[in-house]
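Bench notes, afternoon.
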Amino acid sequence: MTQINDLSERKKANSLESSYVVKAPAGSGKTTMLVSRLIRALANVNEPEEVLAITFTRKAAEEMRKRVLALLSSKDSAKSIDPELPEIVNKIRMKDVEKGWNLNSDPARLSIMTIDSFCSGLLKRASSFSESLYYPTVEEDYKSLYTLAARRALSEISSEEHKAFLGRVLSKYDSDWSRVERHLAEMLEQRDTFFMEVGVGLDLNQMGQRFSDLLTSRLLSCDKLFSPSQKQDILTLYNFSETHLNPKNPKLMRIFPEAESASLEKWHQLFERLIFTKTNTLRKNLNASNGFPSELSETKPMKKIWRDTINVIADSPSAIQALMQVVALPKNDNIHNQLSELKDIFELVKLASAHLHLIFSQRQATDFTQQTLDALSALGGLEEPSDLTLRLDYTLKHILVDEFQDTSPVQLELLRKLVSGWFQGDGRSLFLVGDPMQSIYRFRKADMDLFNQLFQLGRIESVPLERLTLANNFRSQRSLVDWINQLFPPALEAVGSCAEFFVPQNTVRIEDYGRPFTFHNISPDDRLAEANHIAELIISIHGEESVLKAEERSTICILGRSKGHLEEIAQTLKKRKIEFTSVELSSLADIPVIQDLMIVSRILLHPADKVAWLAFLRAPWAGLTLEVLSKLSTVPVLRDFLLHSDAVVRLTREDSERMAWIQDILHKSYQALKTHSLLDSLKMTWNAIGGNSLYRDANSREATRQYFRLIHELEKEDGLITYQKISRLLEKSYPDNHQNVQGSLNIMTIHKAKGLEFDVVIIPSTHRTVKSEPQSLLYWEDFHVDSSSRGPIVAPYQNNTLTSLYSYLRSLELQKIREEVVRLLYVALTRARKKVHLLGKLYDSEEDLEKRQFAKPPKGSFLEFIYEKIPQELIQYSSKDSLVEPHDNRGVCLKRMEFPQANINTDPFGGSAMRNKIDLDALEFEWAGITARQIGIVAHYIFQSLDDLIKHHSTGEIIDRSLKYARARFRSMGVSVGNMNLALQRTETGLNNILYGERGQWLFNTSHCLVQRELELFPGGGFGDKKIIIDRTFVDAVGIRWIVDYKTGYHDGSDVDGFIESETLRHKPQLDYYASVLSLEEHREIRLGLYFPLLDRWKEWPYVQRSSLN
C-alpha cells in the first residue's frame, strides 16, 4: 500500500475531546473509523447506553454491532485496525466484568440503531413516565392508510364546515377525485417535512415579500454576469432584432433592465430573443424569425457580436444555470392569486392528517413518519426541553451518526434537541459522518443541503464541529479512481451542482488490474440484446478465472437504476442457467409457490370468489382443462357445486375421481376454519392437496415458510384478514436470501448496493432514463435570500404549468432530481474494486465509432455525463449477430400432478371428523340467485347517486337516466336477455318507491344534514380491524342520527311481514354494531333503519348503548 496522506485527519477523528463533521467519500474507510471511535467512547463511559450510534439501515446497524463485538472478542483484529485499540479493548472487557455489562450475552445494550428504532425507543420511555400513548405496532401497509385518510377527508365535502374549500380544490383539479386523493395521500407520506419546513400557519403576505426578494436576488446574480460592454451589446442586438420583427411599432429598450422584480418581463424578452430556445437550450444561431434577416448586410456583424456573447455564456455552466433560473421565474403579478389558493390546500392537508391520526388511534398503530414527529414532540422545545430530554441529556455522552448526508429536516431537528444542552468542553461529543456525493435518497426526504450547510457552518446549537475530510481510497485500483476524479467535477458543473461536493481521492492500493472500464455499445437498442451480452460477459469472466481458487475469483454485481432495467437480464440469466443472487428484485408475490398459496388462501377467505375457484381448479393439484373450466364457469355459485355432489358437470373418469378427492378436501378445509386459525387451516389444506410435494426446492420451501409467517403476523394483529391485504404485504416483501458467498454473481438496484463493494461492477442501460417525477399537490422550497428574508415559498397545483409559481418550484425539484442522477452514477461506479463494465447505445455502426459520430444521449441518462469521456479504445461493439433466440413468452403446457399422490394419502385434517358440510349462509346474497345479486349491486350504485340527481333533474328524468345506466350495467355484468326485463322492472320499482313513496322521499329529503353515502369506517380499537360500509347516514331536523341499510331483496310469497322480521333479526346486530362505532365520535340520539325499496317497507328501532362491548 502507498502512504496514507490523510492520517492526521483520521487521528483527530479518534479524539473524544472534540466534535466533528466528517466528509468521507466512497471507499475511504468510514465504517472502520466509526467503529474505532465507538470503541473509544465505550471505554470512557460508565454504561454502554451512554454511547449512541445512529445508522441509516437496520442492516448497517447490525453489521456495526457485529464488528464491535468481534473487536471486543479478539485482540488481533483490534490491532489490525489501530495499534492503540488492544489496550482500549482490554479496558472495556474489564468494565464488562466489573460493571456487569455482559455485552456478549446482551448485545442489545450497545445502542447501535436506526433513527426509526431510536424514535420508537424514545416514545416507549416517554410513555413510561407520562400519560402519552405509545403504539409499538408500525403499519406495514401504511400507504393504504394514507389513501384511506385522503378519501375520508375528501368525503367531507358533504359537510357544511368543509364543503366550500373542498369544492374549490376539486374544481382546480377538474373534479378529478382520484387524482386529488392520490396527491393528498402522497402529501401525507411527506407530512413531517411539510410541517417542519412550511407548517400550516404560513403568513402569505410575508411569503409574497419573500418571493419579491428572491426575484431581486436572482436578477442581481444574473446582472453581475455581464460587463457594461456586454450589456450594451445585448441591447444593440435586441433593438436590431426588434426593428426587423416589428418595423411599424418597435418597442426598443433604451437601457439595460434593472435588477428588480418589476423588470423581470424585460429580462425574459432578452433571453427568449437572443439566448435560449423555446426548449430552454442555448441558441446555436440566429435567423429571420429572431429578427436577423440574412439578406441584410448589417446582419453579419450583428451575428458576430452575438456569437462572441453566446460563447462567453456557453463556456460557463454556472452562468447558464444562473440565467436559466431567471428564465424560469414567474411574473410577480401572477403570484398573489396563486398564494390565495394555498389556504385551501393547507386546510385539506390538516383535515387529512386529522383523519390519519384517527385511523392510527383506532388501529392502535402508527407509521415511521408519525413516530419521528411524536418523538420530536416528546423532546419539547429547544428553550423548554421536556423531562425526557433532560433525562437523555444526563444519559447520553457520545453520539455518532453515519450516512449523515441522508438526514431529513425532521431528523436534524431531533438531533438539535438532543444536543441543545451541550457545550464545548463538557466531556460529551458529537460525530457526524457523510458524503454529499452519496446522497441518493431524496425520495425518502433526505436533504443533502443539510449536510453541506452544517459542514460550512461548523456548528450545531452550542456544539462546535471541527471539519474533517478523508481523501484516501482503500477500495479501488488507481486507474479507476483517477477516471472517477476526472469524470465528476465537470458532470456536477453540467447539472449546476457545486463541484466542492466531490472530493478527489488518492489511491492506497498498489494492485493494477488493467483498464478501469469498458463501454459495450449495444446496437440496435434492444433489452434482450443487452441481457445476452451481459450473459456472455459473465461467462467470459468466469472462464478466465476458472483456474483460480473459489476465494480468488472476482465478485460481480449487476447494478441497475431501477428494477425495470434488470428484469430482462435476470430472466436471461435464468434461462441460460447462470446462477445469481438478487436483492429485492422480485417480491414474494412473483414466486410460483406463493402464487399458488395465494389461490388457496383466496378460496378460504372469499368462498364466493368465482375467479379464485377457477384458478384453484386450473392449478396443478386439479389441472382441469380450459374446456372443463368453461363449463364450470356457468355455475352460478361455484362453491356450492364443489361442496355438493348433487350438481353434475360431465367429466372424464380421472377428472371425476380428482374432483371427488378435491371435494373431500374442501369439506374438511371449511370445517377446519370453524375450529382452527386461518394459518392452521391453510397449512392443512396445502398439505392435503400436495403443495409441498409440488415445490421441493429450497427457495420454494423458504418462501412457503415466509408466507406462513406473514399470515401468523396478520392473525396476531387480531383484525380482519383479506386477500387484498395479504397481496399488498406480499408486494412489499422479498425472498430471504442466504448470505452471499465470495465469487457469486449479484443483481440489485444501485440503492441496494449502498455500502457494498465488488471486484467487477456491470451497469446496464446507461442510455436509458427512468420515469419522470409525478406532479404534487403543492411544492415548496426554503429560500435564504439574506439574514432578514428567509423561509419557505410554497405554491399549490396549477393547471397552467408554464408560467406559474408552481411550475417554477417544480422545476427546482426536477433540477435536484437531475443532480441526484449524477450522484447515483457516482455510487454505482465506486462500488467497484477492479473494473466497471458500462452498457448502452452510443452509436449505430463501427463506422460511426471511427468518426466518433455519437448521438447525444437522453437528458437524465447516465450516458449523458460520460459519453464524451470514453476513449475509443475502451469501446466494444456488440451486434445483433451474437444474440441467442428470444424468450418464449407463449406460456407453458399445463402442469398436472400425478394422481393420487402417494405422499398425500395421509389425512392432514386428522380423520373423518371434519366431513360435515359447512354452513353456507356466511355471505349475503349467496342464498339468492345471480340476478338478485346483480340487482342489488346496481341499485346500491343508483341510490348512492340519487342526492345529486334530485338536485338537478326531475323525477321522470331521474328514472330515465337510472334505467339507461342500469341496462348498460346489467349487460356488462352478463345478465341474460331473459332476465334483463325482470332486472329492469325491479330496479324501476325500487326507484318509484323511493321517489314517490312517503318513506323514500323522507330518506332523501334535502333538509337533512351531515349526509354520508357509502361511508367507509375502519373502527380499530376494541372493534377489530374489519372495515364497515354504511349505506346511508344523516342527521334529521330534530338532531337524531339515522343509520340506514338498503335491502334489495324481493319476496314473492304472502308472508311479507314474516320476511321483514326475519331480515331484521338477521341484520339488527350489524346495524347496532355500526351505531356503537359512530357513538364514539358524536354524542346524540341514534336510530337505525332497514329500508326495502323493492317492497316499499321500512323497519326502524332505537340504538340502545350497552355498558360494554363483547
